Amino acid sequence: MYQSFIGLEVHIHLLTKTKIFCGCRSAFGDEPNTNVCPVCLGYPGVLPALNIEALRMACMVAKALNCRIPEKTWFERKQYFYPDMTKNYQISQFASPLGQEGYVDIEGEWGVKRVRIHECHLEEDAGKMIHTGTVSLLDYNRAGVSLLEIVTEPDMETGEEAEVFIQQLRRMVRYLNVCDGNMEEGSLRADANVSINLRGQGLGRKVEIKNLNSSRFVRLGLNYEIERQSKILDAGKTVVQETRLWNENRDQTEPMRRKENAQDYRYFPEPDLPIFTPDAAFLKSVDESMVELPLPRQKRLAAEYGLSAKQAALICEEKAFADYFEETVAECDYRKHPQAAKNVTNWLLTDIKHILSREAVLLADIDAFKITPKRLAVLIMMVMDGKVSVKNAKQALELMRLEDKDPEDIIAEKGWSQITDPAEIATAVAEVEKEEAETIKELSTLMTDNGNPKRVRSLSAYLTGKILARTGGRADPKLVGEQIEQMIRKQAVHP
Ligand code: ADP
Ligand code: ZN
Ligand code: MG
Asked: By alpha-carbon position, which residue is closest to atom 15 of ligand 1?
């Protein structure tokens, strides 16, 4: 009977080498307070200088989110007192966010759902506070790091939808190479807003769950809140508008503070930074940095290569992996092997993924893999041509990785190449035909009478084994099978 409304505010660290308003290194995990200078420490009299890379990356995200980029965009000061920001204000955007009124489609078991994007705006991150026992420590390495905040409209309804939104956004910014998407390190963090109301009554009074650092916690926190708020309304009470935190040890949200509002921040335009007017050259550089986004790419791969939706999604998990897939397929002789793409998919999603995970190589780092797309394509084509058995090809794959060699060389060295010459196989078949006259007769009779299929299989396997043994196990089993069939048919005609 209730309807829920969920809006997310997602912060992403942009992958600029330096901070947004100074030349300090922007990096995670360095010795505390080593990447700092008078600007990001807020000394009096210093001036910020805007990092144009931050603007370019932010505009890429804005475009990917189908936002409008305004003709002019500027910064405001957002006043607040807290030791994580030495200036006592944060430079942010208020009246002219650089991305406005966009949308993204999220896909899940509910089908496709459009989530409107209210805006995205640039700002500087604050320092990091570490509370230990009775003291609090401050690390200003993060103060001034370029941050893009993406604000959605309250268009989602369940924790699951919000989780998918975060996962898709994460994949998108990684494709664009503007954020590493590492939620554990805080490169992507979400605040989740949620309210419920009687269906048809519009938005309820919202609660904000702050600083969720995994997409799972987003789902759990929101679903917990929806249930908690439902109970409050069931009891005839009203929800308190407040900020809460997700307690991952107790699996519950807990109150943090009552929410401040925009007036509290006394926003006013930042006097030390000029208004930015994106010109044609800037917009062109943004366009040139764009790449095919994950969802459209997934659809294209499914349509172009006949993959299932699931397979296409797995291939498109990381851009580097999808690139690897397409490069491998391109190396295959498509006219000779229309099935090449499907075979490449199977190899990638089983054997290659298996090796990568065993060797702790990230999908994103597949570029550095010894098994290049060219080499993999050659190996897969050799299997399709019957030049090597699947079993030996899998062993060759391991050696390709270890020895940095081409598959043809490994297979030749190991004597793994299969016999594909029909004449050579026919010789072996003829020999076995003489020796196994009884078996062949039985098989032929069974097959003409459509008799006991189990016995048919076992006799066929027996004959195949005999023929393979005569070729040192190297005859192409497919050709052997074909020749056995011919032999049986011959028998049936001349009993
Ligand atoms: P605030 O002024 O508290 O920052 P905003 O209007 O800026 O609130 O919205 C912040 C986020 O909260 C947005 O993602 C928005 O979609 C979401 N939101 C706003 N009102 C509600 C509501 N009543 N229920 C659920 N989400 C809401
Ligand atoms: Zn600095
Ligand atoms: Mg707000």
From this structure: 7
Q: Which pLDDT does position 368 carry in this prediction?
A: 78
Distance (Å, rounded) from C-alpha 351 to C-alpha 357?
Answer: 10
Residue 192 alpha carbon to ligand 2 centre in Å: 30
| 151 within ligand 1 shell (Cβ under 6 A) | yes
Least confident segment among 232-246, 299-313, 408-422:
408-422
Contact 282, 269 (CB under 8 A): no
Q: Find the angle CA(54)-CA(217)-CA(59) to the nearest 5 degrees.
A: 15
Of ligand 1's atoms, which has the minimum distance to the CA of residue 203?
23
Q: Are 200 and 236 a contacting pair, CB within 8 Å?
A: no
User: Which atom, in ligand 1's list, is nearest to the CA of 153?
Assistant: 16
Our answer on whether the CB atom of 444 is closer than 6 Å to any ligand 1 atom is no
State yes or no: pLDDT of 453 exceeds 90.
no
Q: What is the number of other CB atoms lying within 10 angstroms of the CB of residue 475?
A: 25
Q: Does the Cβ of 387 fall within 6 Å of ligand 1?
A: no
Q: Are 448 and 396 in contact (CB under 8 A)?
A: no
Q: In this predicted model, what pLDDT tens digit does every residue of 419-436 receive, in sequence order? A: 777 887 888 888 888 888
362: confidence class by pLDDT, cuts 50, 70, 90: confident
Any idea of the CA torsion for 5, 11, 12, 18, to the nearest 10 degrees? Answer: 160
